[in-house]
Amino acid sequence: MGSVEHKFKVLAFGMIAEKLKTSELELEGIPSTEVLKGYLFQQYPEIKDTKFSISVNRKQVKGDSPIPNEAEVALLPPFSGG
Amino acid sequence: MEKQRKPKNIFVEGPISPEKIAQSIANHSSKTDIGGHSIFLGQVRADEKEGGKVRAIAYSAYEEMALEKAFEIREEIFAKYPLTCMHIYHSLGEVKVGEICLFVFTSSKHRKAAIESCEELVERIKKELPVWGQELVDNEKAVWKENQ
């Protein structure tokens, strides 16, 4: 209590979900997508050599992007629909 | 009257049946300003993989984002081409080889708009929608697909 909480949800899809062994994580106190990547690579080294992009609130982001409070972040491996 | 367009669900559980496609064509007979339709059908191919042949593809999607993106693409294509109608259906879940997993259908007064917009739609769907196909191989192995 006291400090401002910064929580967000991370959704994982395809090969990333398989490697994380979950399709959803709840994280807090991570301010940006680059910091998030660093955290994920440390916690789940098996995704280091997997290609993926990141979306914040359903919009794909390029480079380092802030993660707002209560955001819905997603880890998106290369698309293969159709 | 200007038609209001809202995000539509494009996802179908399992394969898209030939009957659904036929019905969709039939539904346009009352729209007598249409002079041409263009249809693309994606079919699951029995590729040779390490350890066997593909027997099916299991599709999954980030549905909310895919529907938002599909709506955005739809609006852009409608703005770019003089189309009367546009329909997009994509499978989720398992689709066996030989079955249809993508149905894109455009209609216009004259053929060119329908043909060109259909091609552009298919390319954008494959490139921009957060959908993933996992190829299921004979021997119970699974390989994540990657679009070329």
Automatic annotation (TrEMBL), chain A:
Protein name per Swiss-Prot or TrEMBL: Molybdopterin synthase sulfur carrier subunit
InterPro entries: Beta-grasp_dom_sf, Mopterin_synth/thiamin_S_b, ThiS/MoaD-like
Taxonomy, superkingdom: Bacteria
From TrEMBL, chain B:
EC numbers, comma separated: 2.8.1.12
GO biological process terms held by the UniProt record: Mo-molybdopterin cofactor biosynthetic process
GO terms assigned for molecular function: molybdopterin synthase activity
This protein's pathway: Cofactor biosynthesis; molybdopterin biosynthesis
Keywords: Molybdenum cofactor biosynthesis
Catalytic activity: 2 [molybdopterin-synthase sulfur-carrier protein]-C-terminal-Gly-aminoethanethioate + cyclic pyranopterin phosphate + H2O = molybdopterin + 2 [molybdopterin-synthase sulfur-carrier protein]-C-terminal Gly-Gly + 2 H(+)
Complex formation: Heterotetramer of 2 MoaD subunits and 2 MoaE subunits. Also stable as homodimer. The enzyme changes between these two forms during catalysis.
PANTHER family given in the database record: MOLYBDOPTERIN SYNTHASE RELATED (PTHR23404)
Family named by the database record: Belongs to the MoaE family.
Protein name: Molybdopterin synthase catalytic subunit
Source organism of this protein record: Cecembia rubra
